């Protein structure tokens, strides 16, 4: 890694920490329909406002030793975990990808993936304002990227990918509505566009991997609960896990599979 790349990664990590702090606000307030700009952050136990020096991502929680400065009530470790996770993801993505359209898409996937997965795990919901914001972000990045690079073929591929994955999830919901929430259906086109922008192999592996991850977690949940029926799982996190799988190993897995069935076109 060159010095300039390391500096960019460090800057991205710091931005990620700050955005991670805002991610906690989104996770806490959006599901209940509360404003994300007011009132200022406060202790849920005593109502005391969080001091500016205690709002520094990760550091503030460590300084307070995980407790409110006014009433001493515990502060969930979720806050520094989310902040640190977003910071690390941002730094790693920029370190690997540099400053490209693909990097911008991967950063959006990481950020909205963390926020929406946390909400879905807690509430079994994928709020429309956040899935909508994610769709707008991905669409804007793809359009601006295509205009800047002239790669309208990738933009068209993304549009087709959105339609394909969106239709797949709609059919799954229509055929078995108990197995999937409509929030998953609304999230699917955005992930389809993002994955297809990188390539058909990434879309195929990423889309399929979501169901593999979801099935694996469902089996583990049934074993842990000792129940074979009535176990429900949030599927949003596994959609994002599948998308990440597609981005990281999609090309390799697709090449392996094509070679396995005798269609190796390398």
UniProtKB/TrEMBL annotation:
Start and end residues of each Prepilin type IV endopeptidase peptidase domain: 109-219
Major location (coarse): membrane
Cell compartment(s), UniProt: Cell membrane
InterPro entries to which the protein is assigned, alphabetical: Prepilin_IV_endopep_pep (IPR000045), Prepilin_pept_A24_N (IPR010627), Prepilin_peptidase/N-MTase (IPR050882)
Keywords: Cell membrane, Membrane, Transmembrane, Transmembrane helix
Keyword Membrane in annotation: yes
Acetylation is among the record's keywords: no
Lipid bilayer topology: Multi-pass membrane protein
Prepilin peptidase A24 N-terminal domain location: 14-94
Transmembrane spans: 85-118, 130-148, 154-176, 206-225, 237-258
Any single Pfam family the record assigns to this protein: Peptidase_A24
Similarity field: Belongs to the peptidase A24 family.
Name used for this protein in its record: Prepilin peptidase
């Amino acid at each position: 890694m060159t010095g300039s790349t390391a500096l960019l990664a460090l800057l991205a990590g710091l931005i990620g920490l700050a955005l991670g702090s805002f991610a906690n606000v989104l996770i806490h307030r959006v599901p209940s329909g509360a404003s994300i700009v007011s009132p200022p952050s406060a202790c849920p136990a005593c109502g005391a406002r969080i001091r500016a020096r205690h709002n520094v991502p990760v550091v503030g929680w460590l300084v307070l030793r995980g407790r409110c400065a006014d009433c001493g009530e515990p502060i969930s470790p979720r806050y520094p975990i989310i902040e640190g996770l977003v910071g690390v993801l941002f730094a790693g993505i920029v370190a690997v990808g540099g400053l490209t359209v693909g990097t911008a898409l991967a950063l959006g996937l990481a950020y909205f993936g963390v926020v929406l997965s946390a909400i879905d795990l807690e509430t079994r919901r994928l709020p429309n304002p956040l899935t909508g914001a994610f769709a707008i972000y991905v669409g804007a990045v793809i359009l601006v990227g295509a205009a800047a690079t002239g790669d309208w073929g990738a933009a068209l591929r993304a549009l087709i990918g959105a339609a394909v994955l969106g239709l797949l999830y709609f059919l799954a919901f229509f055929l078995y509505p108990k197995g999937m929430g409509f929030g998953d259906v609304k999230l699917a086109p955005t992930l389809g566009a993002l994955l297809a922008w990188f390539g058909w192999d990434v879309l195929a592996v990423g889309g399929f991997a979501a169901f593999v991850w979801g099935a694996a977690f469902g089996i583990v949940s049934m074993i842990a609960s000792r129940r074979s029926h009535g176990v429900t799982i949030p599927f949003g996190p596994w959609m994002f896990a599948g998308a990440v799988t597609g981005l990281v190993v999609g090309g390799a897995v697709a090449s392996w599979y094509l070679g396995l069935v005798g269609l190796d076109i390398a």
